[in-house]
Prior knowledge:
The structure holds 2 protein chains of 2 kinds.
Chain A: E1 5-12, H1 18-30, H2 39-61, E2 69-76, E3 80-87, H3 94-99, H4 111-118, E4 121-127, E5 130-138
Antiparallel strand pairs in A: 1-2, 2-3, 3-5, 4-5
Helix pairs in contact in A: 1-2, 2-4
Chain B: E1 3-8, E2 11-16, E3 20-21, H1 26-38, E4 43-47, E5 53-54, H2 56-71, E6 75-79, H3 83-91, E7 100-101, H4 104-109
Parallel strand pairs in B: 2-4, 3-5, 4-6, 6-7
Antiparallel strand pairs in B: 1-2
Helix pairs in contact in B: 1-2
Amino acid sequence: MSKQVNIDITVPNQTKYLGMIGRIGESLAYSLKSYHGNRRELAYHINLVLTEALANAIRHANDFDPDKEVRVTISVSDQKLTIKVFDQGQGFDIETLAKLKARESDEGGRGIQLIFKLMDQVRYIQEGDSNVLEMTKHLH
Amino acid sequence: MKLNMTEQGDIIIICIEEERMDAHNSGDLKEQMLQLFDEGKCSLVIDLSTVRFIDSSGLGALVSGFKNASAREGSLKLCCLQPQVRSMFELTRLHRVFEIFTTQDEASSSF
């Protein structure tokens, strides 16, 4: 039987929690003994997509409102790692953001593009009262 | 964000004394650089030796500094990147924008 790890964390809508959540994802990636790729690189990428997705939820979806919360879940099986970032805002059009290509001289606009580049599947969906940015990475 | 600044003639060397440059702290670097530009100090070296993680906001702050320095006929150069940080510049193709040096001395003597 395959082992599954599930992590479920809710933090206030503040950027000071980015490091903590990113490091949890990083540690989790290092613990994936069955992953045969570059684990150090995977750990950085998971840290990065968590940081980008959380910062995006805090800034754009939850509009920096410190009374709101952001929930993050990470599920890992033998086959894949799935991260979900839940926000309570108005949502955003991920397709439009994905199509915008940041020019080298642009200061912003790289966050969502990095998520699309590093993860195998990215969806922005509705689950109950929340919007969810769901990002999946295949591990084999 | 903890920054350590030293002056070498006209050149300001800014050491980022943080492990992470992200959306939480990158605004501080941007503000500090704008203050330097206002004082007419437009030749900067950013030493990233302590930084082991950078996100799109951290990269954006450096791009902002680079553009502002260039607009004032100055320059912003980078040095001492850890491999994972260097790979972020390659992933976003920003290694083609910045001059990146192995050591602080190489960066400051390139002005």
